[in-house]
Amino acid sequence: MIDAAEIIRTQTSILFVTLDSLRYDTARTAYDNGLTPHLASLLPEGGWERRQTPGTFTLPAHIAFFSGFLPKLPQPEQPPRLWECRPPAFKAVPPQTFVFDAPNLLAGLGQHGYRSICVGGVTYFSRETPLGSVLPDLFDEDHWRPEFCSPEPDSTRRQVDHALEVAEHHDGRPVYLFVNVSATHVPHSHYLGDSRDTAASQQAALAYADTHLARLITTLTAKKRWLIILCADHGDAYGEDGYHGRGIAHPVVMNVPYAAMVR
């Protein structure tokens, strides 16, 4: 069990990676079939947990994440939350949960000396539209370029290179480094040379991202201790029961991969 209160008290840096639109079954199959060997060597024993997202598309899912609500286990009993906004006086909070007294987690971490950094992927982080500024505005600094977005076939490498570069500039201060991986978001059919996005092409996108994400984790943790959280914000339907896309409460959209570890 991760003691997030201790993590913040000791000013341990935090890496939060969202693999945009990545379905749990896609991640699990890739893990079981050895298609993501670098990530598999870093994930906790057993690999990805199946969890359920608080939002069915990028914007509400990330608003929930940055408000302290990470994906939950698909069962009645839940482990203590990593962090939580200060609740009403009548509610008890486990001692290992970090309680922040601010409207969102990033502002709360800022009160404890953290600098929050966003390396965006999909256009909700691009500032190209009014909605594309909502999430970046939560951070102390945000970074987005067209080559970080999903149509670019080498987007994850470019995102990881940039994330490592900006993280180095704050070596003396704890950081909350957020990376939204766009490779697993449509379009990803190009990873199979196909014209249609499918669960198979999403799996190929994850296999592509595997080396770069592992490089991000190993490079950061080679210098100091980090809390690492990886999950998807939601999944995508590719024709199951006639559904396509996201924003629907279908199991392939609701079930997402999740992993957390201290390294």
Automatic annotation (TrEMBL):
Q: Tell me which SUPFAM superfamilies the record gives.
A: Alkaline phosphatase-like
Q: Where is the signal peptide?
A: none
Q: Which residues form the Sulfatase N-terminal domain?
A: 14-250
Q: Which residues cross the membrane?
A: none
State what protein this is by name.
Sulfatase
